[in-house]
Design goal:
Helices cover 53% and strands 13% of the residues. It has 16 helices and 10 strands. The chain has helices spanning 13-24, 36-45, 66-70, 85-94, 116-124, 141-145, 159-169, 182-204, 209-229, 234-237, 240-251, 256-265, 270-277, 282-297, 302-312, 317-325; strands at 5-9, 28-32, 47-48, 51-55, 60-63, 75-78, 101-103, 132-136, 150-156, 174-178. A hairpin with a 2-residue loop joins strand 3 (47-48) and strand 4 (51-55).
């Protein structure tokens, strides 16, 4: 029996990590990225510029030729940016793919308010609904590469696809739980990046664990309120892809969104902070989408709004914290 092929779309640190995991599970992995310089470097050196301690598995090859990556694939996995999801979905449609697609990116599209799974289905069509899955949860790339125990969630509208994904990704150290709440699994991992930026700012300003605990708890409240308008189940938001992902992203110094917030607190501009992080900061994009969603449905999202104003309107981070702390006190309903 021939080796099964995975087409892996996106070669950022997280994509490189999961591609290695799949390769170690016996798949032939062809990893595509739009950045030809990056794929050429990966093919030549077998080392990712952002993960220099880890060599690519022997089962991996790299290309910037989309058709080459997709051709003959038994499974497609995606780890592009939120902004890139629509374009990549259109490329997949042009290739007439008919195999399961696993989405691992986390975000909400600006202006449309669509989850990334919804973006993919809008482009690919409802006939593809049974083929799309979402993989999400508390998972720092470098820890997965170091084979530290990690648990995530997989969801799909098709139970067979869920278990196909579980079989593909599960290792002794990487556990995948099934969950049928596709919107919930997609949503929790998107908004937590905004709260992580807020926590990074608070820590950078020298505030303590009390402040961070308050931001995380009230941030979860914002996530849960917004989740209702996307049809998410509350239990999902309280689970690995919601609270779990929120915890690791707000607490880990490896988190790019947390680091970005730290750099903002140091006085760097958003562009300077992004450059210093050196990777895509999804929370900076998603805070616009989440604020739009809140405004559309009349849902107050004060932490999200504060982050938006710091990043886009020049609000001083210390003033943002002060405004959050001086808001009118209401009954706490979580």
């Amino acid at each position: 029996m021939s080796q099964k092929k995975v087409a892996y779309l996106g070669a950022g640190a997280w994509g490189y990590t999961l591609a290695n995991l799949l390769a170690s599970n016996g798949f032939e992995v062809v990893q595509w990225d739009i950045n030809k310089e990056l794929t050429d470097t990966l093919q030549t050196t077998r080392v990712h510029p952002k993960m220099s301690d880890f060599k690519a598995h022997d089962n991996m090859t790299f290309t910037s030729d989309f058709h080459e990556a997709i051709e003959g694939a038994d499974l497609i996995v995606e780890s592009v940016t939120s902004q890139g999801m629509r374009g990549v979905s259109e490329m997949l449609k042009s290739e007439n793919v008919s195999v399961p697609i696993v989405l691992t990116s986390k975000g909400i599209e600006q202006n449309t308010g669509l989850l990334l799974s919804e973006v993919a289905l809008e482009v690919l069509g409802d006939d593809f609904k049974a083929q799309v899955a979402s993989l999400s949860g508390p998972s720092i790339a470098v820890e997965v590469m170091r084979k530290m125990p990690t648990s995530v969630v997989c969801s799909s509208y098709n139970p067979e696809v869920i278990f196909t994904v579980i079989d593909a990704f599960t290792t002794d150290n990487f556990r995948v739980y099934p969950n049928t709440d596709m919107p919930g699994v997609s949503f929790g991992g998107a908004v937590k990046n905004i709260i992580a930026i807020a926590c990074g700012i608070a820590d950078g300003l020298g505030f303590g664990d009390n402040t961070k605990a308050a931001l995380m708890t009230r941030g979860l409240h914002e996530i849960r309120k917004l989740a209702t308008v996307k049809g998410c189940q509350p239990e999902t938001i309280n689970g690995l892809s919601g609270m779990g992902d929120l915890c690791v992203t707000c607490l880990s110094t490896h988190s790019r969104n947390y680091k970005f917030g730290n750099y903002i607190a140091e006085g760097l501009s958003p562009d300077e902070a992004k450059d210093k992080v050196g990777m895509v900061v999804e929370g900076a994009y998603t805070c616009v989408s989440a604020l739009q969603l809140g405004q559309k449905h009349g849902i107050p999202v004060p932490i999200t709004e504060a982050v938006y104003r710091v990043l886009n309107e020049g609000l001083d981070p210390k003033e943002a914290v002060k405004q959050l702390l001086t808001r009118t006190v209401k009954q706490e309903h979580l």
